[in-house]
Each structure stands twice: as structure tokens, then as C-alpha cells.
């Protein structure tokens, strides 16, 4: 069973259901965790230091990629986006 990084937002059973039915993007969860970790680090470190720490924690990501993840604007999607028919 995969650990639920979204526990404050959704219960474990819902998270597990989404994983089992391939309804949750792994990249989206990773980006969510990176943004939250950045906010946490910013309480103690400068922006530059926080980015460097994240780069150490995610060595497979380029510095610019981490920066884009942190600063990307997410637009709310309309309900029509989710209709399949």
C-alpha cells in the first residue's frame, strides 16, 4: 500500500481507490509535495536555500524544473472538464 501524502485532504481509503483505479497522477502528487515542502522550508531558509535543499531531495529534477513546479499557476477547472461523455 502506498503512503497517502494527501492525508489532510482525503482519507486513506479514497486515496487507495484513486491509486488502484489509476485516477491519480503520480506527477501531480509529487508536485503537490514539492510545493508544500517549499512552503515549509521558506519558514526557515531563504528562497535560494530552499530551492537548493529541494534539489538535493529530488536530484533527478533540474533546478529550473523545481522552480517551475513551485511557481506555476494552477487554474481551477470547470466541471465540464471532468465530463467523459
Largest sheet: none
The rounded distance between the terminal residues' Cα atoms is 32 Å
Radius of gyration: 15 Å
- Enumerate how many helices there are, as a single number: 4
Low-pLDDT sequence parts: none
Mean pLDDT: 87
Could you state the order of secondary-structure elements as H and E?
A: HHHH
**Shape type:** globular
Number of strands: 0
Query: What is the helix content?
Result: 40-55%
Bin the strand percentage: under 5%
SS-based structural class?
Answer: mainly alpha
What does this structure look like?
It is a single chain. With 85 residues, the chain is mainly α. It has a domain at 12-70. The protein has helices spanning 12-20, 26-42, 47-57, 63-71. α2 packs antiparallel against α3 (47-57).
Spell out the blueprint of helices and strands.
Layout (H helix, E strand, L loop, with lengths): L11 H9 L5 H17 L4 H11 L5 H9 L14
Helix pairs in contact: 2-3
Key traits:
single chain, 85 residues, mainly alpha, 4 helices, 0% strand, globular
Task: Please provide a brief summary of the model.
With 85 residues, this protein is an all-alpha fold.
Amino acid at each position: 500500500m502506498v503512503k497517502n501524502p494527501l492525508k489532510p485532504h482525503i482519507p486513506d481509503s479514497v486515496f487507495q481507490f484513486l491509486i488502484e483505479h489509476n485516477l491519480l497522477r503520480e506527477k501531480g502528487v509529487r508536485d503537490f509535495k514539492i510545493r508544500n515542502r517549499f512552503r515549509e522550508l521558506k519558514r526557515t531558509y531563504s528562497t535560494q536555500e530552499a530551492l537548493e535543499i529541494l534539489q538535493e531531495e529530488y536530484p533527478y529534477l533540474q533546478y529550473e524544473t523545481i522552480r517551475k513546479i513551485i511557481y506555476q499557476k494552477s487554474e481551477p477547472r470547470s466541471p465540464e472538464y471532468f465530463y467523459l461523455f
